[in-house]
Amino acid sequence: MAWATPEGYFDQLDRWLDMEGVAERQRITLRMQQGRSGSPERSGETLINLRVADHRSGLGGRHLIDFTKPAGERLPMNRLKVGSPVLLSNEDRLDEGGMPGVVSRRTTTAIQVALDAWPDGKHFRIDLSPDERTRLRQHAAMGRARMLSGSQARLRDRLIGLDEPRFDEAPELRFATGLNPPQQEAVRFALSARDFAILHGPPGTGKTTTLAEVIHQAVLAGQKVLACAPSNTAVDNLLERLVPLVPSVLRVGHPARVFEALRGHTLDELVERDDSTKIVQEMYREAEGLMRGASKSYRSRDAHRRKGELYAEAKTLRQHARQLERHIVQQVLGTADVICTTMTIDEELLGDRRFDLVVIDEACQSTEPALWQAMLRADRLVIAGDHCQLPPTVLSKEAAEEGFRVSPMERLVGQLGERVYRRLTVQYRMHESIMRFSSDQFYDGELVADASVKERRLADLPAVGEAGEGLPVLEFWDTAGAEWGEEFEPDGHSKRNPQEAAWVVAQVKELIDAGLEPSQIAVIAPYAAQVRLLRNRLRIEGLEIDTVDGFQGREKEAVVITFVRSNHEGEIGFLADTRRTNVALTRAKRAMRAIGDSATLGGDPFYAELLEYFQQENAYRTVWELDDLLR
Ligand SMILES: Nc1ncnc2c1ncn2[C@@H]1O[C@H](COP(=O)(O)OP(=O)(O)OP(=O)(O)O)[C@@H](O)[C@H]1O
């Protein structure tokens, strides 16, 4: 997509963003309606029958409350991620409506929500709510970006593709990490950009490692850096790589995974450690005491006046506490060389801070409007990602068809080509035969497996040893002709394939019998219904079963893939987006097994080539070889 003017570009984006808002609200209304009849948790956007299990207070007097199921059982599969806006409702009084909050942490059995007030009730329900706040921030940022002038306007125009980006000569550098030559070249290239540069990181090529080095070099040169990514998990991954390199790195927001080593770098923790924070906490406590006092009933004649006074006093005290807290926060932020945050930036918190360099990781998972909050604070940008993996999620079909799923990185690579990006080509994850198909299809055959991984096999894992000698690196099982058909999940729209699921169960058992830990295995299915079916059939602690989308950015020793689609019409649905399959095919380090129906998949040229690749690699089998039990 190309635009002739900034106005045209922003008009289009404002429209798409509004369409997305409508689609999101429609989906939530539909879920609420379905919720009354069937099981509301099936949507993955609702959790019911929750209890308060624990709580603590966070910045700004917020309540951080942990909710669990009554017996602490696992929460059902859900899309409530850290940072997701939610509505918390009292199940006994649903008609009263919910209280807005944000998911601040999650585990398999608990979900923590940050709330401004304490919720009344015993039984709770959490619903994903439309992300209006993010949309408003994006509209506002784009509004400001329209009005820019001078050098910022020129940077804006270059990012829209209206002007040529400029590069200086690549600097000579001494690297802190043992980077390979394409990574070194990428760091030099990134630092030579006067406007922006792009790093293209195919699976396992050390994109985040390389970005961390870019940031480290910028800090060495005395620059201030804002490091962001679309999801909390991606921000944490970057933070994890930065901590050993840059001592003064700070994480704003709710980390998705709170590792001990990273916790000390969160803004909340750093503020909490500040001596003056004790005073703030004392002030909040005192204000709460006054409020409690005011809510008691008084018999005296001037009861109303007395109540009013207490409330007013509490309010003033809270205001003073907030002011002092803001001051501490700003002081802490001021000491950081690198600030890490999601791309939904808390404008109030960061104030008018600008950065010499803004780095965006996993940039292909964000839509265009998400770029502008970060851009407004940047002198220069480095954008990293892989546009050959999953694009951003867009709910509005119409906006998606018009081009809303094209991330800014994908657009810029398409518009400006090789002069704006460098590709990393040495990968540290996959056995060579697992890597090659993806490399040929998506990366011009440029990927090279590092010597340390090129021939890695399950048998090299100490716990597996000889038992793994016969286990193949690559295997595709064809169900053609076996009538292992797909079906709809009862009461649902998602597809599943019970016979493929039975095959998966057998594969997982074989891998575990060979000595693999369940946590070293992943089962990947493109459809949520197949994931649900498999989670029911394979209740093994540590084994991860998820959709492709849930596995982006992850890796496992062994991966089992079920393609699910099997029908006489040759319909492959969203498997036609081959980038989804690219993600699935590039998660395994030592062994990858897949099952699918070549009669259904093979009508698509991409899958026809995939099948041919398995044949060339002597990795093609058919379920007709299996004993009758499975059929
Ligand atoms: N130059 C290098 N030498 C040795 N190992 C490396 C090098 N660069 C990266 N790695 C290793 O490769 C793995 C992947 O690195 P990293 O997490 O940075 O990759 P990524 O490209 O961001 O991953 P993803 O595919 O999830 O986006 C890590 O285990 C990292 O330690």
Automatic annotation (TrEMBL):
Its EC number is 3.6.4.12. It comes from the Bacteria. Residues 193-361 form the AAA+ ATPase domain. Its main location: cytoplasm. Keywords: ATP-binding, Cytoplasm, Helicase, Hydrolase, Nucleotide-binding. It is found in: Cytoplasm. CDD domains: DEXXQc_SMUBP2, SF1_C_Upf1. GO terms for cellular component: chromosome; cytoplasm. InterPro entries: AAA+_ATPase, Coronavir_polyprotein_1ab, DNA2/NAM7-like_C, DNA2/NAM7_AAA_11, Helicase_ATP-bd, P-loop_NTPase, SF1_C_Upf1, SMUBP-2_HCS1_1B. Transmembrane segments: none annotated. Residues 175-427 form the Helicase ATP-binding domain. GO terms for molecular function: 5'-3' DNA helicase activity; ATP binding; hydrolase activity; RNA binding. SMART domains: AAA, DEXDc. It holds the Pfam family AAA_11. Belongs to the DNA2/NAM7 helicase family. This is DNA helicase.
